[in-house]
Write a structure and sequence with these properties.
This is C-type lectin domain-containing protein. This protein has three domains: 109 residues, Mannose-Binding Protein A, Chain A; 121 residues, no CATH class; 112 residues, Mannose-Binding Protein A, Chain A. It has nine helices and 21 strands. The longest helix has 11 residues. The chain is globular and about 60 Å long.
Length: 374
């Protein structure tokens, strides 16, 4: 059966769309971390991946049990196995875009996995790695739904994890990303300050499903810093507000799995061919309605074999607007600058690299695509 891209508009039909791109499942059986991982991969997608506080709340609400349970975070210790991350979820750290002071990072005081910004009077914003359990002032960043941004100097002395928790509970996060560090308001605010925590950290923790999410929700600073014990697997402690802790992977605990409602199709097809494929074999071409969904989907897009990946977003010349084929409202967009202008026979793609922004491409070009599953 051939689908008309405009059929649901012209006939006034409404299609059901999955509320979430992934679903959490609490498994009450006690298993080791490896056993839990195997169970999740055989019955769902994988052990639970948590990408932000919204995910954390969804995971907590998926069970009424107040216990300690495995999640899909595992540590692979080793000095050379650490990766740098931005604290703000969804912001990817680029090793080629840093502000390290000469000779940094250097682990001068032992394990130095968090970052201070200093030498601020000359606006150089030089970075130094520093032990996460030392106390310093810091800057928080806030962003409202109206995209109003503001920076807040917190004069209280805190460890890096304490500073991160404070910013997340009272603002948005620790100041993160070069765009924020280069903001005029931030540069003005830091002129008389020195040695402040910023939202950069590194660790050896990796997600079971291979995603690169930087979100961490540790309760204790020791879990952020590489430890020398056998506690290399992460748990969420539900009776302590869902904060995370580390444990011996051989201990037996209940666990959380997740079931992914997306599938990347590594075949090159035109937009209409991709639409037909998704509707015949799965549910529909994927829709993106908020930033959380953008972050989750872009992790899948990174594994594509083509430079761009089709989305379920198309422009109709007949009715003169962009629409999601799933009938979702176009309330969130991530267009690259200057490409969202209207053209006939165009559909939206997400770039595999860069900032995973959206571009418009002629419908007859061929790319990989992502289907949503019912």
């Amino acid at each position: 059966m051939q689908w008309s891209p405009f059929l649901f508009i012209l006939m006034g039909q409404s299609f059901f769309f999955t509320c979430h791109l992934y679903v959490y499942h609490f498994i009450g059986e006690n298993k080791t971390w490896d056993e839990a991982q195997k169970y999740c991969r055989e019955n769902y997608t994988d052990l639970a991946t948590v990408s932000n506080m919204t995910d954390m709340e969804r995971l907590r609400k998926s069970t009424e049990t107040l216990t300690e349970a495995w999640i899909g975070l595992h540590s692979y210790p080793g000095k050379d196995n650490r990766r740098w991350y931005w604290s703000l979820p969804g912001l990817e750290f680029n090793d080629n875009q840093t502000r390290w002071n000469s000779g940094e990072p250097n682990d001068y005081r032992g394990q130095e996995n968090c970052v201070l910004i200093h030498e601020l009077s000359n606006q150089n914003q030089n970075w130094s790695d520093f032990p996460c359990n030392t106390n310093h002032q810091f800057f928080c960043y806030s962003e409202t739904k109206q995209f109003n941004k503001s920076f807040h100097l917190i004069s209280s002395m805190m460890t890096w994890p304490q500073a991160q928790r404070y910013c997340r509970e009272n603002h948005t996060d620790l100041v993160s990303g070069l765009d924020q560090l280069d903001d005029k308001e931030f540069k003005t605010a830091i002129m008389s300050e020195d040695h402040l925590w910023i939202g950069v950290f590194r660790d050896t923790w990796r997600w079971s499903d291979g995603t690169n999410f930087s979100f961490r929700n540790w309760e204790y600073v020791e879990d952020l810093v590489d430890g020398q014990s056998d506690k290399k697997c992460a748990t969420t402690v539900l009776n302590r507000a869902g904060k995370w802790s580390s444990a011996d992977c051989n201990e037996k605990k209940p666990f959380f799995c997740y079931d992914d409602k997306l599938i990347l199709i590594n075949e090159s097809k035109t937009w209409v061919e991709a639409l037909n494929y998704c509707r015949e074999k799965h549910y529909d071409l994927v829709s993106i309605t908020n930033l959380d969904e953008q972050r989750w989907i872009q992790e899948r897009v990174k594994k594509a074999s083509t430079e761009f990946v089709w989305l379920g977003l198309r422009y109709t010349c007949t009715l003169d607007f962009w629409f999601w084929v799933s009938d979702e409202v176009v309330s969130y967009t991530n267009w690259a600058s200057g490409v969202e202008s209207d053209d006939c026979d165009m559909s939206a793609v997400m770039e595999r690299g860069g900032r995973n922004q959206w571009f418009k491409k002629p419908d007859n070009e061929t790319f990989n695509f992502i289907c949503s599953k019912d």
